[in-house]
Amino acid sequence: MKPLEGKVALVAGATRGAGRGIATELGAAGATVYVTGRTTRTQRSEYNRPETIEETAELVNEAGGLGIPVQVDHLRSGQVEALVARIEKEQGRLDVLVNDIWGAEHLIEWNVPVWEHSLEGGLRMLRLAVDTHVITSHYAAAADPER
After folding, report:
1. What is the rounded CA–CA span in Å between residue 46 and residue 125?
2. The whole model's pTM is what?
């Protein structure tokens, strides 16, 4: 039984971790899942981890769904807007949004007084944690089939 068969999902930040697991389970439930992130087989993000969006898409396929990898930097409004336009063109709608973007662990400074932290790194961490979600939600909400 595939309760999400015929449904279209976007897992923003599906390269690794929870996003990868959520994308795989959506695939197991039968969904078409657009998996996004900055790391591909040919290009790593600043986070420099080996996992890729293509690997996640393959896991979605193996689980029984359809995984579609799309490289997107969710801080870049134009890239997110183009992603949602592509989903609407290819699928006609977007049913599920999972905002699982982060990728800033490398910016955390433990056991350092806050005034000694990198201001630039701290602001980048906030942008990766907050702005990416706002940008993605802004464009994805416009693709809501119920609006």
Report:
1. 12
2. 0.92
